Amino acid sequence: xxxxxxxxxxxxxxxxxxxxxxxxxxxxxxxxxxxxxxxxxxxxxxxxxxxxxxxxxxxxxxxxxxxxxxxxxxxxxxxxxxxxxxxxxxxxxxxxxxxxxxxxxxxxxxxxxxxxxxxxxxxxxxxxxxxxxxxxxxxxxxxxxxxxxxxxxxxxxxxxxxxxxxxxxxxxxxxxxxxxxxxxxxxxxxxxxxxxxxxxxxxxxxxxxxxxxxxxxxxxxxxxxxxxx
Amino acid sequence: xxxxxxxxxxxxxxxxxxxxxxxxxxxxxxxxxxxxxxxxxxxxxxxxxxxxxxxxxxxxxxxxxxxxxxxxxxxxxxxxxxxxxxxxxxxxxxxxxxxxxxxxxxxxxxxxxxxxxxxxxxxxxxxxxxxxxxxxxxxxxxxxxxxxxxxxxxxxxxxxxxxxxxxxxxxxxxxxxxxxxxxxxxxxxxxxxxxxxxxxxxxxxxxxxxxxxxxxxxxxxxxxxxxxx
DNA sequence: CTGCATCCGCCTCGATACTG
DNA sequence: CAGTATCGAGGCGGATGCAG
Lengths: 229, 229
Prior knowledge:
3-stranded antiparallel sheet; Nonspecific Lipid-transfer Protein, Chain A; alpha+beta
């Protein structure tokens, strides 16, 4: 005789599959362990996104699956659905407190995965937003003591900024009010920088990477975002 | 026309499902994101395990799935298969360098998941080994400066130890040579301690938790393994 | 056009049985 | 003890439908 461990599957109240272990890792994976879930969180770490933005930023996800993940994440209190004020009026998804608390875990997993970028797969896509995650990985809090600067990155048509404030760093999409430094490059160059297969020196020397701003700020940036070698 | 992105699926050389993104998080999840994989790593973080130990420590996993996960993890260089020297002679699985590098990510995810233990699910199982993971989470490096002690935990029939060495902590299964402190309790008590629904004071007062050793070491332990509140 | 819902084929998962 | 073989159920991926 087969005993169903799940409820009769009332539509909308599906009791998610669970490891049924009293363990914080297992419980975390009950919530985040399904396919695409952590990648949705990754994309939302840069700021609120519309449904369409998420679809574009998650190439390969099915539109149905994205909808389901967002619904689950919202129900779990990780993601919040919000209407932008007029005249925009569009709905955006953003991380709730619980979701923002995932940053350390996302960073830790990404840092572990850094080695894989040395062995690139043939047909892998790249988005500048994912490269900004690498910036978050390379950030060294102890080297940022006393530093209070904002760095802006313009990669092709996309803009991001990093706000460093004395040991803390925040990476967000969009321009910053008064950046101390503005970098400009194309997506290909940024890809190399993020994967550390292209050194900043070479990129600056070849002109594929340009910067505008104080030279002292550039020195700070290079000091603060250094690989742990 | 439908283009198959995968190879003809030759047995043994299956090209694993991939997000196909040039992103360290996506690549990490290509390797670790499938069901049970990180839980296998969690169990191996406490030391080498036989196949049977892993099956017991991962209730709910199918034996076929465990075999497949171990094979994949070994091929990825995360897990190593090793024969114990005679007279034991049994095969054990242990983490390779790459696998040991996963500890920060596992800790980070577990720490995020700690809040879930306040809302226990009805039929969730518990193993002392999972509680030792909580110990690793509660460890505060800055409070362990200058501390160089070993704490042993005897939970029902299982034994673990924690070696603290000036800002670093290592949690392993089995007894320690010369522990500075030995705790003894049953699984139920330990579960409450790990979930922080039972305070050490109450446990010691009620006698469900006993300790043997130096009182100064007990003070150190309490200082070093404190919640971040 | 955005923001989903529905449908369908395939592949992974989970449970059990079985073998060296 | 240490796995392999088998098979049904369900999650996933891709295409398409549809309402605001």
